[in-house]
Design brief:
single chain; 71 residues; alpha+beta; four-stranded antiparallel beta sheet; 37% strand
């Protein structure tokens, strides 16, 4: 599967909104010019990705973090 096709499928699911559990979320983090951490809206400038998986309502999310030295 091509990357563009995968992005389109994910975007389509995001547009539909929340439909229950299990729930998967992606958080992008990066560095600003002064080295301070900030929350990013896109993966274009992210140096850290956190994937959270929640099985059911009220359950603690399982988190996996990926870090890269480059953008």
């Amino acid at each position: 599967m091509h990357l563009d096709k995968a992005k389109k499928r994910i975007a389509k699911h995001v547009k539909k909104g929340f439909h229950g559990y299990p729930l998967v979320s992606l958080e992008y983090f990066g560095k600003e010019n002064f080295g301070k951490e900030h929350f990013g809206k896109t993966p274009d400038s992210a140096s850290q990705l956190v994937i959270s998986y929640t099985e059911e309502e009220g359950a603690d999310p399982q988190k996996q973090t990926f870090v890269s030295a480059d953008d």
